[in-house]
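WARN retry 2 of 3 for item q-0093 after timeout on previous attempt; input resubmitted unchanged.
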Amino acid sequence: MCWAYLSATTRSLETYSEADGHDAAWLGNTRFTLFRDRLDRVFACERYAVRSGNDDADLDVLYDQLSERDIDTMPRLDADLVRRSNLNGSPGWAYGATRFLLASGVFGKLDKLPWPQKSPTKQRVARQRNPEPPQPSLFDDFALDEIGGLEAVLAATHDLDLTTYVVAHTLDPLSRQVELVLGRARLNSGGGQAWHWRQNLLSTPPADGGRRTDDAPIPTNPNTVPDAPVRLRRPAEERRNDRAGDGQ
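OK item q-0093 returned
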């Protein structure tokens, strides 16, 4: 998630130009679009999906338009680790029984993010049952047969097919500071705290292990291990030219 957001934000700011007519709406839409695209790339979803066991297929498509830094730092994950799991048209990704959606906010105000002003889908996510131990209920003084399962019915209406979290993101275009958090949204109808809990994803950068990098230190001694056979991938344009030539 960190890689995807930093890549999307960097590219957005490189393109952003008030002199070219860009405004806050353009920057926000571009950032969101690129964030969604980068998540699909790193998770091998949508147009970047590959067959299981062939994670290095179509690298020309995967790397298209990415900077060298983005390519070098892209985490390497199994293609079937995360899947697309949209909710009512809102882009989402799922790992096992856990899903996350995206939401933008104002820089420095994520703790007060107004869920009632967001889309009905985000409001529904924020209505999920509190994961913490249950608080005293209006039904505590009634017998089970008196309430007729009403409490369970009301709680069930807030449940989703998957436990759903939110990745909230912000950008200050002037200072170029960013925020990226993962949390359990809380419907703050009367204002106040927007989360049951949240975690700052940028406070702990991903470990180097598993990235698609080639920055290993140069060995000081001769390497006696035989080279492994390697088949280089040819550029897509070259492959298309070959196919065109075969048809002539």
